[in-house]
Design goal:
Elements (H helix, E strand, L loop, with lengths): L2 H11 L4 H12 L6 H17 L10 H22 L23 H20 L2 H10 L6 H7 L4 H20 L4
Helix pairs in contact: 2-3, 3-4, 3-5, 6-8, 7-8
């Protein structure tokens, strides 16, 4: 299947269920997690897997059941991952570097690509140490100046800037090796 055919099929047969699927997942995870960030993570992973496995669809009329099964599996995987690791980032932060790149008039390919970028960013952030996560989180908050953040964290501006630079470097290294 060529990329344009794949994208057209994905848009017409899978993305049409996105809102319905999101509501379905929210009903099932809100009692345990009550986190829109978790919902976004699960949805992103679902869409990524659906995209990667488009070639497995034998009967297009069964796409709805197929995408729901992927979503259920991703939700279970998310719960398992929470049991295995403790993330220092709060679920409510929902911090994603890719969110800074959002365009208001995106085409469907741009939305799909952005969702891949968001999922990748989330994977990378989870692999960073707590200090690096904090540095990136505070640095990408647009409302607060660097000097003010450094003061709030009890460090010199130069120390804070150096730690942010190291965190960005770590992020880049992990990101570049994400799919090796």
């Amino acid at each position: 299947m060529e990329i344009n055919d794949k994208l057209l099929f994905f848009t017409q047969n899978i993305l049409i269920y996105e809102k319905e699927l999101k509501n379905y997942l929210w009903k099932h995870i809100k009692d345990n997690l009550n986190s829109r960030c978790a919902l976004d993570d699960i949805m992103q992973n679902t869409m990524m897997k659906a995209w990667a496995r488009l070639g497995q669809i034998r009967e297009p009329e069964n796409v709805r059941a197929w995408i729901y099964q992927i979503a259920r599996n991703e939700a279970l995987q998310y719960y398992r991952s929470l049991r295995r690791t403790e993330s220092p980032m709060k679920e409510d932060d929902c911090f994603n570097i890719a969110n800074l790149l959002v365009d208001t008039e995106e085409s469907v390919p741009d939305i799909v690509i952005r969702n891949f970028e968001k999922a990748d960013a989330a994977k990378v952030l989870k692999q960073l140490d707590p200090e690096s996560q904090t540095m990136l989180h505070t640095y990408f908050e647009k409302e607060t100046k660097v000097k003010k953040i450094a003061e709030m964290l009890g460090m010199k501006r130069s120390t804070y800037s150096a730690k942010v630079a190291r965190a960005i470097q770590k992020y880049k290294e992990i990101y570049l090796n994400l799919y090796d």
